[in-house]
Amino acid sequence: MAVTHADLAPSRRGSNIGSKTGVVLMVFSILLGLLCFVLCLMAEATRSQMIRDVSDDGGGETDGSECRYSGNGKTPLICAAGAFLALAIAMMVLHTHLLVSVSKSDPDPSLLMTWEIANDHLSTLTWQAAFFFITTWICFSVAEILLLIGLSVESGHLKGWSTLRPRCFIAQEGLFSSAGVFGITTVFLATGLSITALRAQWLLQDQENFRHEVMEASILYASPPRSLEDRIMTVGGETPIIRHDLYHEPGLTEYLRAFDKII
């Protein structure tokens, strides 16, 4: 089977992780992560507090069994909901672009197994990608669970928050701020995963280009040599010399010149 130039040319990648679109989406996801962190801090600062109602029963003893909320919880509820959506969108954008880029790049990992030099790099990148992938989803899950807990607590007293009740459920101190820390960590870990995938893509491209160069060189040296012919050349006042040249197929001009000489 003949090898054509199309077979030797490197395959075009449908999508590159390091393209302008990939960089824009990565920056956009980081900004969403920062927005999530800021909203979590705002929710932490405005979260509802429990106020104990101190009353005297007439016998000199105070009864503090009833409580009420310091606010209706709308502000921390809106901030927590915005942080939840921002973090979810950031993860969806990063991982969707990563999956599309990897699926359309169509790499051939078997090429790397033929080169001993690339095995160490491939193993390192594989472990790095696994670390970033696992830690990203762990941090994302923890952040979203904390935000869901905060949302459920703050949404429980939107109405009648000033009414005295025997029990008051409030978000513990540091819940929203912890969610913000896990959220911003999630975005940075997801960015590290994208960078690791980009490095692996570059490594595959370099090895593929090297493979094509080796194929071109092997085809060039494996081609049979062209036949030689002896040509006698004469120089004025000197003896004829024999020159070994590559076989030269006469063209139309040489045929016309020979025909003119015959005529």
From TrEMBL:
Membrane topology of the entry: Multi-pass membrane protein
Main localisation: membrane
Keyword Repeat set for record: no
Keywords: Membrane, Signal, Transmembrane, Transmembrane helix
InterPro entries linked: DEAL/Modifying_wall_lignin1/2, DESIGUAL
Listed transmembrane segments: 23-43, 77-100, 129-153, 174-198
Compartments, as annotated in UniProt: Endomembrane system
One GO term describing the cellular component: endomembrane system
Annotated family: Belongs to the DESIGUAL family.
Protein known as: Uncharacterized protein
Species this chain originates from: Artemisia annua (Sweet wormwood)
